[in-house]
Automatic annotation (TrEMBL):
Domain (UspA): residue spans on this chain: 165-302
Ranges where the record places region Disordered: 309-331
Family, as annotated: Belongs to the universal stress protein A family.
InterPro entries per record: Rossmann-like_a/b/a_fold, Universal_stress_UspA, UspA
Organism: Paraburkholderia antibiotica
PANTHER family: STRESS RESPONSE PROTEIN NHAX (PTHR46268), UNIVERSAL STRESS PROTEIN UP12 (PTHR46268:SF6)
Protein name, per record: Universal stress protein
Signal peptide: none
SUPFAM superfamilies documented for this protein: Adenine nucleotide alpha hydrolases-like (SSF52402)
CDD domains: USP-like
Length: 331
């Protein structure tokens, strides 16, 4: 288990989107988890114009002109967004990530930019037509490439009139990563937020063949007790519960999402890996499916996210290779 984090909000928050969609509501939402003097960086990701064929070829005679127009539009929009948010953030940094020049995917380029800027939270605003969006930010890949928490905001959540976080659902399964997610959520959530910790693991299928049911039940109780102890040490109103499945085919991520909807959660917090996925570089299947299907924002904490407090050492970050030069390639 990782040591407890410093009980302070995030200090360096990077808010990113593709196509300049959702930056304003995503910034307002993530602002609740940041310190009063936190620094923000607004990021727009510009994809390779060749991936937009045949849409752009009807309007521009060549890819270079289309590329210049996309970069100009992104820069102008970021300036307008930063100006609109000045009363909330003060002076915010802006950055345009040009995937054409970097020869990288969106998640890899964003993770590299976050490491360079020393971000301790990456907030990603999903595009409404993300499945058809060129240069989309793959949330699974981003979580795998960074060691700071990732706040993913689905398109439906960006339409909310009030972004206030009042109810936080935390999924725990006994793994150190899951308990770290509870520590992080308790440290950064608004003071009046209510917490609910739920035991959520697919142990029914994983352990039934070789562990007695009494041992599995004891494990569940012990995990909840550890979660309850952490909740009791905080000032947040809280409760804990088991998530029951109707049958052996019950899906853990579906149970989490159903409970989030029933409890009217404003945020789901969870670890990137469970008890059985510690050796895998990508998030476990429960986190992946939750990210894919959630209607409310999801805060995912990768392994080691709670180590060292807010001042995470740069050596803890993965080192993605830089692009192969700055010459755009449209093929």
């Amino acid at each position: 288990m990782n040591p407890a984090i410093d009980p302070t909000p995030f200090m360096r928050v990077m808010v990113a989107s593709t196509g300049r969609t959702g930056l304003v509501p995503a910034t307002h939402f993530s602002r609740q988890f940041a310190a009063a003097d936190a620094k923000f960086r607004l990021v727009d990701i510009v994809c390779n114009p060749a991936q937009l064929f045949p849409t752009l070829i009807l309007n521009y005679p060549d890819w270079c002109e289309a590329h210049r127009a996309m970069l100009h539009g992104a820069q102008a929009s970021l300036r307008d967004t930063a100006s609109a948010l000045r009363q909330v953030l003060g002076e915010a940094d802006t950055e345009v990530i040009d995937l054409t020049a970097l020869h990288q995917g969106a998640a890899e380029a964003l993770a590299h930019a976050a490491r360079q800027w020393r971000a301790d939270l990456i907030a990603v605003a999903a595009h409404r037509y993300e499945h058809r969006r060129a240069g989309r930010i793959d949330s699974d890949e981003l979580v795998a490439l960074t060691h700071c928490p990732v706040l993913y905001l689905p398109a439906t959540s960006l339409e909310a009139v009030s972004p206030t976080v009042r109810r936080v659902l935390v999924a725990i399964d006994g793994s150190g990563t899951a308990l770290d997610s509870l520590r992080v959520a308790l440290a950064v959530a608004p003071p009046d937020a209510r917490f609910k910790a739920v035991y959520a693991a697919d142990d029914g299928l994983a352990w039934r063949e070789w562990l007695p049911s009494e041992m599995v039940s004891r494990h569940r109780i012990e995990v909840l007790q550890r979660g309850e102890a952490m909740l009791a040490s905080s000032r947040h109103p809280a409760e804990a519960a088991l998530l029951d499945f109707d049958d052996d085919s019950g899906d853990t991520s579906s149970a989490i999402l159903d409970e989030a909807q029933r409890w009217r959660a404003d945020l789901i917090a969870m670890g990137s890996h469970g008890m059985r996925g510690a050796a895998q570089p990508f998030p476990g299947h429960v986190a992946s499916r939750t990210l894919r299907d959630a209607c409310c924002p999801v805060l995912v904490c990768p392994r080691g996210a709670a180590s060292g407090g807010r001042a995470r050492a740069e050596s803890a970050w993965p080192q993605p290779e830089p692009g192969n030069g700055n010459v755009p390639c449209y093929s």
